[in-house]
Amino acid sequence: MPVSVPSRPVSIADLPGDAQVIIALRPDLLRLARRLSDSESEAQDLVQETLLKLWRRRAEVAGVEDLRAYARAALRNLYRQGLRRAPHLPLEEEDGPSAEPEVFASLALAHLHCAIARLPVDQARLIGLVMAGETSPAALAGQTGCGKNTVMSRLARARAQLRREMDLAPGAPVASLF
């Protein structure tokens, strides 16, 4: 399904309150998880599991005064539980499949949508055309009235900015968000 570029700038304030809180906690939790864990994938898993627990318990934690400290403590506890747990047991709950993919895919898309909205207008328009399925630099140049080299340069800058905002490694595919 193509994602449209918003007609007006979208900020994190435009997202539902619970999603704003979750998105805002992710970078801090990721830094902590990277310090604790042995690998990037383990750090990503810890953050994802922590945020998922917060999302599931959002009604219960709504009254927590310092949610950042609460989330950091939850992440540390998950890390310690993982150290005690047998290596063959997954971090997932044992009561069956969870809504994890939908929750985090939705949050990642919301974060990406906000990041695209913060791009300069010409870059956001090009990204929107690419997301809609147009991949030919010549066709993009024709639609925007820019030269092919200008289109390629703007796309490269836009992608680099989006990777930075989404905490992706340089050159990492967008699919790594999910």
TrEMBL record:
Keywords: DNA-binding, Sigma factor, Transcription, Transcription regulation
Coiled coil: none
Residue stretches making up the RNA polymerase sigma factor 70 region 4 type domain: 112-162
SUPFAM superfamilies linked: Sigma2 domain of RNA polymerase sigma factors, Sigma3 and sigma4 domains of RNA polymerase sigma factors
Stored InterPro entries: RNA_pol_sigma-70-like (IPR039425), RNA_pol_sigma-70_dom (IPR014284), RNA_pol_sigma70_r2 (IPR007627), RNA_pol_sigma70_r4_t2 (IPR013249), RNA_pol_sigma_r2 (IPR013325), RNA_pol_sigma_r3/r4-like (IPR013324), WH-like_DNA-bd_sf (IPR036388)
Similarity remark: Belongs to the sigma-70 factor family. ECF subfamily.
Species of the source: Roseovarius aquimarinus
Sequence intervals crossing the membrane: none
Protein name: RNA polymerase sigma factor
Segments forming domain RNA polymerase sigma-70 region: 24-86
